[in-house]
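With this grant's support, the team has encoded backbone shapes as discrete tokens. A representative record is reproduced below.
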Amino acid sequence: MPTYALALVVVAALAHAGWNVLAKTATGGATFVWLFSAAAAVVWAPVAAFALVVAPGSFGLEGLGFVVGSGALHALYFVLLQRGYREGDLSLVYPLARGTGPLLSTAAAIALFSERPSVLALAGGAIIVGAVLSLAGTGGPAAGGERGRAIAFALATGVAIAAYTLWDKRAVGPLRISPIVYYWGTNLAETTLMTAFVAHRRAEVAQTWRAHRAQALGVAVLSPLAYVLVLFALAHAPVSYVAPAREMSILVGAVAGTTVLAEGHRRRRLLAAVAIFAGIVALAIG
């Protein structure tokens, strides 16, 4: 994996873990997702306009179709993730979702894109995914039914992650669409689609904004930043390398779950973090 692509993923992982902690501390489901999506469309509009003038990349009707499709997949992802956070701990939902996503996307990239990662890179990816999934056993003392629902939503979120990763790789790779322009369009499409779900919930939207304004604005800045960096990495590196490397965010998420959210199991999380680091090193070398 190229060094610059790995560096992009490292910074993206920090931003990604940060917005997930903010999202976990907020409630509101679809209304919260719509709020931070709408805020992101406004906040990132000047950046997208600048990118459109300086380096727009290739964009046509096919690119527009990919933007709309990505918006739908990301809307599904955010709603499933937020629902998972309502049902279970960050330390349960986040690792399962993040571990399932790269596992599926790497397998699909090998089958669909004919990617051929080295044995060392595959081993590194497997170590990362295994360590991430092991963290799912550190969830809080939720009831059996609640834990089962949390796991179900986490796995569904992982499927959504794999779907949009493969979809977006095609857009910023072979189609050569500017990552910044592409994700801003995706975010706008996502917001438009979500509007249909919250149009009749104006009171709930207003209440969510009053209660979680800071979290919504924080996610609006950090979430697009994290994924735009990942898109730049995907434009120049294989999915089978980028997807597992993104799990570095688990290192930050594990620490945040222990400290900020006081979810316990510090020793087990640190051991998993060491394993994740080893997997990242194998990816970088491979």
About this structure: DSSP finds twelve helices and no strands in the chain. The two ends are 7 Å apart (CA to CA). The chain has a mean pLDDT of 83.
